Amino acid sequence: MSDIPDELLREILVRLPAETLLRLRSVCKQWVRVIDDPSFTKAHTHNQLNSHTLLVKNRSGAPLYSFSLDSLDFINNGPQMIDAIHIKQLVRLGVPRLWALFDWSVCNSLILIENREFRQKWVIIWNPLTKECREVKVPKLNVTSKSCRYAFGYDYDSDDYKVVKIDKLDDEWQTLVYSLKSDSWRKIEGCPPSIRYCYAGNTFFNGTLYWPSRDTITALDLGTESFFQLPLPLADRSDFGILTDFHLDALDGCLVCSLDYRKRKTFHGWVMKDNGVEEKSWIKLFSLQYKDFLWRLRLVAYLKGKEQVILQHNRGFLWIDIGTNSIKKFSIHGFPDIDSSKICPGSLVRLNAPRERKRKRKRKTEITLTRLKLCVRDVGERCCSDNSSCDASKCHFCRLG
Q1: Is the pLDDT reported for residue 275 higher than 60?
Q2: H or E segment at 239?
Q3: Which range has the worst mean pLDDT, 53-62, 156-165, 367-376?
């Protein structure tokens, strides 16, 4: 294995799933060095942006499951039932189970978990693959209101993950930004009034956080930490009825918009071209007329190369071929009622600093040596007490004592 150059090995390993790479770390030291390199982790994270792995959460309290859309039978025209892989939950004292939380922000397969059920306020960043978590200390300088909302994204300029807290204090909206590198909060200016009308959910795409509302899209550039606004896709509400639901998602390297006009039972999917700031940058993907039994309809996957989209509803998924205008159904074993699903292929990002892990290993080694010394001393005391002719200057056990 050592005969493979590191450059060639990187080009091979960067194309593999993160779960496979964790197992390959046990091959040899060279592979560990390559996989644990921060530059490799960054390249692998960027390579996973077009992945089609879904993380699914159930309303009835079932655990999290994941499955790959590549496992679907694209030839079969009938309904399909697929199996999903169970994801081990985050188990920590005082932390509620993930399905008890309403909104969950995902960035590079890291999940931001926000507490809404307990009096004690906390926010945790969790990696479902490595099982690592990082607690974000909520600032105590202000009082968190019911209008408080969190968002999670990545700043490409500073190579830093950031948590954004938007809260209302004394009839004024303020924005706080937490840096994972510096482990600190700071306030930024320019929070627009439109943020108060935005929905609870947010989307991270290409270094920017987006919040949808009925009239506009509020965005925050994490590099410059400045707000700006985007228009909604062109749609005449008088023709389609009242807008019932509106979602933004980052799918297959594109910013995708879902508009649900439930009064007319019409669903529209739009994609933004080149992340523009004019209305002409929005391109309509498809329109769908649905029946009464479809609730919580949302666009959750976009297979750009195949011109196909995946829609989630309360009982399963719809698989739409945009080119042929055909619709297929598929569902997951053991999921009678689906709450939400997100693209989450897995991440190698380490949330705990290497020096902290090294310090823990050093502390564990010191405890082991201390215990070994006590055991040897105990054996020596028994040995020397039974042997009256023991020479303390030459006895190994006596010198240890």
Answers
A1: no
A2: helix 237-240
A3: 367-376
